[in-house]
Write a structure and sequence with these properties.
heterodimer; A: about 180 residues; alpha+beta; Heat Shock Protein 90; B: about 120 residues; 4 strands
Chain lengths: ~180, ~120
C-alpha cells in the first residue's frame, strides 16, 4: 500500500464485512509515535481466527475475513519498529474486533498517512448505515467526525448523498488545515 | 468554517429529492474495494465516479456502490456496470481519468468503451 490511509480503508472494510453497526477509527500522534486503532462491534473472530489473521498464507476461500489486509498493516507497522495487535470477541454481548497498530513516524520506512479524508469519505459512501466515529489527534489538536451527530441533523437524508459526502470531505479538510 | 447549519440547509434542499430517488437508479456502477482493488488504486476511481455522476446530473439514474474482491485481481481496479435488460460490462485497470470517460460516454451517452473492458484485455 502506498499510503497508510489505504491500509486503514482496507482494515475498516473488514469491520463492514463483520456486520458492524459502529466503527471507531482513532489516530493518535504524539511526538514520533502514531497509534492507530480500528474498533468495531461486528461479529468478532474466534481465538483461532485471531491467531491466523496475521498469516497471509493461511487464507482459504472459506475463511474470507483472513487475507492480505492485516498482514500488510502488520508489515507497515513493524518495518518502522512498531507493532500490531488484534483482539476480538464473539458471542451475544460485547462482540467485536479491535485492531491496534503502533508506528514510528520518524523511521525511514514509515508509510505516509496520505489522503485519510478520502478514505473516511469512501467508507461512509460505501456503508452509510454504519455509524462512523473518526478522531485524529496530533499534539493536543484534534480532527473529529461522528456520523451520529450528522444523522441528527440530516434526518431522512442519507449519508451517502453526494452533497453530504462533499460536506464531510470539506469539513474534514478544513479540520486538517488547523492541525 | 463548515457548520452543522450548512448541513441542515443541505437536508432541506435534499428532502424532495429523496422521494424522487426511490424506485429509480436504472444503472448500477460497482467498484471492487477489497485489498487487491484498494492497493491497485480503487479509491480514487470510486471517488471519480461519485463526483462525476453528481456533476453530470446523473445521480437519479446511476448509483455507485462498492463490493469486495470480484476475482480478477490482476485486472484491478475493476468496475462493473449493471443495467436492466443489458449485459454486464466489466471495465478493468481503471483510473480516475478512465472513470470520467465512462461516465460521459457510457453512463450518459450509452456507448460502452470497449477498449477498457475485460473482453478487450483478455483477447
Amino acid at each position: 500500500m502506498k499510503e497508510l490511509s489505504l491500509n486503514i480503508l482496507d482494515i475498516a472494510m473488514n469491520s463492514v464485512k463483520a456486520g458492524a453497526k459502529n466503527v471507531d477509527i482513532t489516530i493518535d500522534e504524539q511526538g514520533p509515535e502514531l497509534n492507530l486503532t480500528i474498533r468495531d462491534d461486528g461479529c468478532g473472530m474466534s481465538p483461532e481466527q485471531v491467531e491466523e489473521v496475521t498469516n497471509p498464507f493461511f487464507t482459504t476461500r472459506t475463511t474470507r475475513k483472513v487475507g492480505m489486509g492485516v498482514p500488510l498493516l502488520k508489515l507497515a507497522a513493524e518495518q518502522t519498529g512498531g507493532k500490531l495487535t488484534v483482539t476480538s470477541r464473539q458471542g451475544e454481548e460485547k462482540h467485536g474486533t479491535e485492531t491496534k497498530a503502533l508506528f514510528y513516524t520518524d523511521h525511514i520506512d514509515f508509510t505516509p498517512l496520505g489522503d485519510i479524508v478520502s478514505s473516511i469519505c469512501t467508507l461512509i459512501q460505501g456503508s452509510p448505515a454504519i455509524d462512523w466515529h473518526f478522531v485524529h489527534g496530533r499534539d493536543g489538536k484534534t480532527v473529529e467526525l461522528d456520523t451520529k451527530e450528522l444523522r441528527q441533523v440530516l434526518g431522512d437524508v442519507p449519508l451517502d448523498s453526494y452533497e453530504v459526502i462533499k460536506w464531510i470531505e470539506d469539513y474534514l479538510k478544513e479540520g486538517y488545515s488547523s492541525i | 468554517m463548515k457548520s452543522l447549519a450548512e448541513l441542515a440547509a443541505i437536508r432541506d434542499k435534499m428532502k424532495d429529492k429523496v422521494v424522487l430517488r426511490e424506485g429509480s437508479g436504472d444503472i448500477r456502477v460497482v467498484v471492487g474495494m477489497a485489498t487487491c482493488g484498494i492497493a491497485a488504486g480503487a479509491r480514487p476511481v470510486l471517488n471519480a465516479f461519485v463526483s462525476k455522476v453528481a456533476e453530470e446530473g446523473l445521480a437519479d439514474k446511476v448509483t455507485v456502490s462498492q463490493t469486495g474482491c470480484i476475482g480478477v485481481c490482476q485486472f484491478e481496479p475493476v468496475v462493473e456496470v449493471f443495467e436492466a435488460g443489458k449485459e454486464k460490462v466489466t471495465y478493468v485497470k481503471m483510473t480516475p481519468e478512465k472513470a470520467a470517460e465512462v461516465v460521459e460516454k457510457h453512463l450518459k451517452g450509452g456507448q460502452v468503451i470497449n477498449e477498457y473492458t475485460i473482453t478487450n484485455a483478455i483477447s
